[in-house]
Amino acid sequence: QNMMNQNMNQNMMNQNMNQNMMNQNMNQNMMQDNNNCRQEKVCRTIRRFITVCKTVERCENAAANITVGD
What are phi and psi of 46, to 5 degrees? Predict the structure, then answer.
């Protein structure tokens, strides 16, 4: 009986550990995706900004008006 209980406890501990690790990985992946998305938006804005900046005057005007969307 004791050995069976110990094995059951061990199994439950292992399952919990696995579940926690899976949850952590999922959270990390979601955070990573979010980060990549934000970086990509900033990159797109900068690329758009650069294409607008053909001359110094136009560049200064664009710089005054640029906003990075969320």
Answer: -65, -40
